[in-house]
Amino acid sequence: MAIATVNPATGETLKTFDPLGDAELEERIERARRAYHTHRTTGFGRRADLLCRAADLLEEEREDIARTMTTEMGKTLTASRAEVAKCVKAMRWYARNAEGLLADEEPAAPDVEDSGANRAFVRYRPLGVILAVMPWNFPLWQVIRFAAPALMAGNVGLLKHASNVPQTALYLEDLFHRAGYPNGCFQTLLIGSGAVERILRDPRVAAATLTGSEPAGRAVASVAGDEVKRTVLELGGSDPFVVMSSADVEKAAATAVTARVQNNGQSCIAAKRFIVHTDVYDAFCSRFTEAMAALTVGDPMAESTDVGPLSSERGRADLEELVEDARVRGADVLCGGRRPEGLPDGWYYEPTVLAHVTPEMRIHHEEAFGPVASLYRVSGVDQAIEVANDTPFGLSSNVWTRSPEEQRRFVRDLEAGAVYVNGMTASHPALPFGGIKRSGYGRELAGHGIREFCNATTVWFGPSHAEPGPVGGD
User: Is the pTM of this model over 0.90?
Assistant: First the structure.
């Protein structure tokens, strides 16, 4: 794939970029290595000052970078502005909390004594140069939720961003540079996917994080495993949205629309499979389908637009194939299911609701990356859990019920990295984020995320006649 900005609303190629040559790539990796040996020794106060300065700049430039994101990948301008605000919030959160999250951990005194030590503790130290392979769907947020904790921990970053968001990728490097980070602390690599293996095998690169497709995750994990390097993977999702008979159906249906079409339906944590108790199925289906059909599809720059174009022509074609496969195998298309009329030559697709989805259909097991919802009717909590878990993915889940017993069952039995009860899945800097099964492994955000790329170092002092002196931080 060419490294280029192609406007999904029109199909027009606006700007192209040449990939880095071998010599320039080597120079950047070496620059990152040198930067790490300086950055790792800075104190948390200095790191926090730098990250806050970057957050301030990002907030000041919100409108410009929001328009860039919308131009490059098609999300509505309203969604782009919200993404910028979310990034600023996370950066300031890590600036405030990183030192506490990485504070030395002291075992209980009896355990220290039993180990034969005069003193023992665990210290979190940075790993080094981290390669981040990031996707296009949240081109700012996906990077910041890696970069903010990584930089606060004392690591440095190399960003291989998706090839269709090069201007956003370059903005991020420039943002950290203007905030005052030393040269090499955060660099964007304009490269194709074929260059990732070479970087990951380089001994100067300590670990990698990837958010993206399952095939991309398998490729990175395979190389990292061969090199015995740590990875964090956040891959696909086909999240269930369960509505039980005691639920507030009106609120659940309204939330379901947002949960399905957020980011034009192109979100790993978007609800995709709507599993509804038979007692409230008809009421939910009616409200949900009517609201989906009423959404405005159009120019993502327009304030009135609810759903913009998909990010690429290939992405729309993949979605169309899933819907057509379901239709010919017996699914009912309650609304949508086609390209909207009267719009320019962009990659638009109507919000779509499919009923009577069965396991024989591809969409039952594959991720629908666009504004397409699948409806299932179930008779009780056991069947709801069975259908919800009948997926190769396990990123997040949503459950609507007022029953405490049902809530306990879902929290205990749903196979996912998160269970949201009577609300919509959303990432937050204070809560760990990640999945199980083919949705990946490891966690981002919160204390779990910042420690993923740290060396949990055991420090042990043997008995002596003198008390050990203080051991300073990195």
Answer: yes
